[in-house]
Design brief:
It is built from 14 helices and ten strands. With 381 residues, it is of the alpha+beta class. It folds into two domains: 174 residues, GAF domain (Beta-Lactamase); 99 residues, PAS domain (Beta-Lactamase), CATH 3.30.450.20. The strands form two sheets. Strands 2-1-5-4-3 form a five-stranded antiparallel β-sheet. Helix 3 runs antiparallel to helix 14.
Length: 381
């Protein structure tokens, strides 16, 4: 494809991520844009990931409304290459099955799975923001007889990946704010370029009244909200000025609150959505504590294992010895009832993440917002 086609596709994707689209629509429209720059077979596989664990929370493919259970078992129990967490943890954040197998894709079990569905070449890309958080992944495929994904294809996907990651994060937040399930659901307020409030979700006043110098009853927005809104509006005028505006503010009650500002581009006006949510140091941490009674250090070791880190990697990250890591792992295995790292990953995924994947598949079919993060569930006895 020409450089002009790739630039048009890149510009189109950037515009889509600033329109406040729901996640499924974002994936659908982005698929069309990508096809003009990087041809692929049938339809892309889009995933959202939990940044804390790099485990899958949703999947969307126009031709595959449900992920086959065999695929999930292969991804989380089998020893293979080109797996999502491995690509997400890698420095490049992108890999092809041809590269990962040294030019022999038939040596990979996932290649045989792909071939059963008509796909030969596979490209997996992590959707990672410029700040380093992995919010999703993209899988592209080509049928037998087609050229392998080349350096230009990979360069294009790498270039748009951070933009798509920010778009995925925004869409998840917008979906959660407009479809609350609990008391800590994010709040959403839409502000126009005249600084007037166009709309707000029920309960948002609870969040805003807890921020310094705000007075919802008097119609006065907190300065922190106005600052984030101003930065987000600037990105609508100058798209290259930076990515989504984010700010962390200490509330009056002593709780950290995170503000996300994203521009909503339309043909007639400029608006900005400001999303307000509690700061989550790692949503998986309270889940692990509640379900398995892990200590803080055991939770940290478990999170790093879920991300695919080795004992040496974990020891370096936590500044402890490898023997100390192994002792923590033994305690984690005892508490969770598993015997290996792979069993630990599989148990946590199928207990807390697979239910979210299936729930999101139903939501996508019903036109409801998709949700991120694991599902808190009681562990099996």
């Amino acid at each position: 494809m020409s450089g002009y086609a790739k630039q048009r596709a890149s510009d189109r994707i950037a515009t889509l991520t600033r329109q406040g689209l729901d996640l499924v629509t974002l994936w659908q429209e982005s698929s069309e844009a990508i096809s003009s720059a990087v041809p692929y077979y049938q339809a892309p596989c889009w995933y959202t990931l939990d940044p804390a664990s790099l485990l899958v929370t949703s999947h969307f493919n126009e031709g595959m409304p449900e992920l086959p259970p065999e695929w999930l078992a292969q991804e989380y129990y089998a020893d293979d290459v080109n797996q999502l967490a491995d690509v997400a943890r890698s420095e490049r954040g992108i890999s092809t099955l041809h590269e990962a197998t040294g030019g022999d894709p038939a040596s990979s079990p996932r290649w045989h799975q792909n071939m059963m569905l008509g796909g030969d070449q596979e490209l997996i890309a992590c959707l990672r923001t410029r700040s380093g958080e992995a919010w999703g992944a993209l899988g592209l495929y080509r049928e037998p007889g087609q050229p392998i994904f080349d350096d230009e294809d990979l360069a294009f996907i790498r270039a748009v990946a951070p933009v798509l990651a920010t778009g995925a994060r925004n869409s998840l937040l917008l979906g959660e704010a407009t479809d609350p399930e609990d008391a800590d659901a994010p709040g959403l307020i839409v502000i126009n370029e005249s600084w007037e409030i166009e709309s707000a979700t029920p309960g948002v006043e609870r969040w805003l009244s807890n921020l310094p110098d705000g007075d919802w009853a008097a119609g006065r927005l907190p300065s922190s909200v106005l600052a984030v809104a101003g930065r987000a509006l600037r990105t609508a005028t100058y798209p290259d000025a930076g990515e989504v505006a984010v700010s962390r503010v200490m509330s009056r009650s002593g709780r950290w609150i995170v503000l996300h500002g994203t521009s909503l581009v339309s043909s007639s006006s400029r608006r900005v959505a400001v999303i307000v949510e509690p700061a989550h140091p790692g949503r998986i941490a309270p889940l692990l504590m509640a379900a398995y009674g892990l200590t803080d250090r055991e939770q940290e070791v478990t999170r790093l294992v879920l991300q695919g880190n080795s004992t040496t990697d974990i020891a370096e990250r936590l500044v402890v010895s490898g023997n100390t890591v192994q002792q923590h792992l033994k305690s984690v295995f005892d508490k969770t009832g598993v015997r290996s790292r792979r069993d630990l990953v599989g148990k946590i995924f199928f207990a807390h993440y697979e239910p979210r994947v299936r729930d999101n598949e139903r939501r996508a079919a019903d036109g409801a917002p998709l949700r991120g993060g694991p599902v808190v569930a009681r562990p099996e006895l």
